[in-house]
């Protein structure tokens, strides 16, 4: 009886912790996306040069990989998440300015934004409702991501538009897998730090948005 | 080839080198999956792919 009671209490407290991590993650994610939107608007207003994107992405990735893990358990971690997402948003400015100058540019940006939202929410709801454990995807997704980086590296020298299109499509599908993997990790207690969970999900959203922009930009030019 | 391409290539090489050990570790520690598990992953991914095709038709 006592053993049953303690098991029930343990699973109840685990569920409470999971719900807290999920709630905090989605709250911080919403705030960082809003902040990114603001910094992107600022970057567009300042008419930043194209190299801003490259510098911001490299800076953001370096901070996310080497600085954030050291501060993830302190309140400074939240500030660092805003720094990374603000930087990535700022880097988006020149890209958005470039797309906005295309004949169908505003339409491409709007559809990419809406498409990213639909993909993220759809996959999150799928993972939350089915409560399926996607932890088996970890290695598979990382291999896929490494192959994409290798293909992107090769395409810097080859400059093949069709390959660029395929890389963007592969990024969206891989990031979709990461949304399932990351959400499932939060649900099943594999990720209890909402700062790290937020940055993981933010990166997937950022990559899906950039890749959708690229695909829709290339395909609309084909007409 | 301009300096931005060289800088991008260097950054990608560094990311690949940094991510490689983590990838190997994740691959070794990933639990085995059944066909049902893979199907539950493949179905939403196919839906995402079809959704992208729909978005392309829209622009």
Helix run count of chain B = 2
Span from first to last CA of chain A? 71 Å
- Uncertain parts of chain A: none
- Tell me about the biggest sheet of chain B? none
Could you state the order of secondary-structure elements of chain A as H and E?
A: HHHHHHH
Beta fraction of the residues of chain A? Answer: under 5%
Radius of gyration of CA atoms of chain A, rounded to a whole number: 19 Å
Measure the end-to-end span of chain B: 32 Å
Quaternary state of this entry equals heterodimer
- Low-pLDDT runs of 5+ residues of chain B are none
Q: Give, in order, the helices and strands of chain B.
A: HH
Structural class of chain A: mainly alpha
Largest sheet entry of chain A: none
Helix content of chain B: over 70%
Secondary structural class of chain B: mainly alpha
Give the secondary structure arrangement, pairings included:
The complex is a heterodimer of chains A (223) and B (59).
Chain A: H1 2-45, H2 51-71, H3 76-100, H4 105-130, H5 138-158, H6 161-187, H7 194-221
Chain B: H1 3-29, H2 35-58
3D structure, described in words:
In chain A, α5 (138-158) packs antiparallel against α6 (161-187) and α6 (161-187) packs antiparallel against α7 (194-221). The mean pLDDT of chain A is 92. Helices cover 86% and strands 0% of the residues of chain A. Chain A has 223 residues and is mainly α. Chain B is an all-alpha fold. Chain B is flat, with a radius of gyration of 18 Å. Chains A and B meet through α2, α4, α5, α6 and α7 of A and α1 and α2 of B.
Keywords:
heterodimer; A: 223 residues; 86% helix; globular; B: 59 residues; mainly alpha
Short description:
Chain A is mainly alpha-helical. Chain A has helices at 2-45, 51-71, 76-100, 105-130, 138-158, 161-187, 194-221. The radius of gyration of chain A is 19 Å and the shape is globular.
């Amino acid at each position: 009886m006592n053993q049953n009671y303690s098991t029930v209490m343990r699973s109840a407290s685990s569920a409470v912790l999971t719900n807290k991590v999920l709630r905090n993650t989605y709250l911080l994610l919403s705030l960082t996306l809003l902040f990114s939107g603001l910094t992107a608007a600022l970057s567009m207003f300042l008419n930043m040069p194209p190299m801003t994107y490259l510098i911001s992405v490299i800076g953001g990735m370096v901070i996310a990989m080497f600085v954030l893990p050291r501060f993830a358990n302190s309140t400074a971690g939240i500030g660092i998440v805003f720094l990374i997402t603000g930087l990535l948003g700022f880097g988006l400015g020149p890209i958005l300015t470039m797309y906005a100058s295309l004949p169908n540019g505003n339409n491409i940006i709007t559809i990419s934004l809406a498409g990213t939202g639909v993909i993220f929410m759809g996959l999150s709801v799928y993972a939350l409702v089915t409560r399926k454990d996607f932890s088996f995807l970890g290695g598979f997704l990382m291999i896929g991501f490494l192959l994409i980086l290798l293909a992107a590296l090769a395409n810097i020298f080859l400059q093949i538009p069709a390959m660029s299109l395929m890389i963007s499509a592969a990024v969206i599908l891989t990031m979709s897998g990461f949304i399932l993997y990351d959400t499932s990790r939060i649900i099943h207690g594999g990720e209890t730090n909402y700062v790290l969970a937020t940055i993981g999900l933010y990166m997937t959203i950022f990559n899906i948005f950039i890749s959708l922009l690229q695909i829709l930009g290339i395909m609309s030019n084909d007409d | 080839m301009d300096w931005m391409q060289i800088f991008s290539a260097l950054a990608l090489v560094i990311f690949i080198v940094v991510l490689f050990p983590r990838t190997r570790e994740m691959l070794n520690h990933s639990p085995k999956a059944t066909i049902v598990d893979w199907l539950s992953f493949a179905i939403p991914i196919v839906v995402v792919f079809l959704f992208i095709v729909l978005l392309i038709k829209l622009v």
